[in-house]
């Protein structure tokens, strides 16, 4: 329950605490902060600044906050699945080096060097 509440309230903190902070914290934080800015800017009148709330700007802010929260929930759930080795987890489906190809495969740039020698 704490993970869900933290994911909804402060998505970057939830990713740093429960998820993979190295890959997801920055983009999730950008969406979240932009959502907060949208809420504040829309509440102050938005681009028209006519004294009333710009609801379309507030709506964009809520949408961006929602995207950050859903992304966080999916990331935290994926990390939990990887740690508990649930079927379908990425850790169970990793490609092995050399699977589907020869292990003694030569350097792909070797053909370029051969073509230069022939010219």
UniProtKB/TrEMBL annotation:
Residues 98-119 are annotated as: Disordered. The chain crosses the membrane at residues 53-76. Keywords: Membrane, Transmembrane, Transmembrane helix. This is Transmembrane protein.
């Amino acid at each position: 329950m704490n993970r869900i509440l933290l994911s909804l309230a402060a998505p970057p903190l939830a990713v740093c605490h429960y998820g993979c902070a190295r890959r997801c914290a920055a983009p999730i934080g950008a969406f979240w902060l932009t959502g907060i800015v949208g809420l504040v800017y829309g509440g102050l009148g938005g681009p028209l600044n006519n004294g009333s709330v710009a609801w379309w700007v507030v709506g964009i802010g809520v949408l961006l906050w929602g995207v950050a929260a859903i992304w966080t929930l999916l990331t935290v759930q994926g990390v939990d699945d990887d740690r508990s080795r649930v079927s379908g987890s990425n850790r169970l489906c990793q490609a092995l080096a050399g699977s589907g190809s020869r292990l003694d495969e030569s350097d792909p740039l070797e053909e370029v060097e051969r073509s230069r020698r022939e010219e």
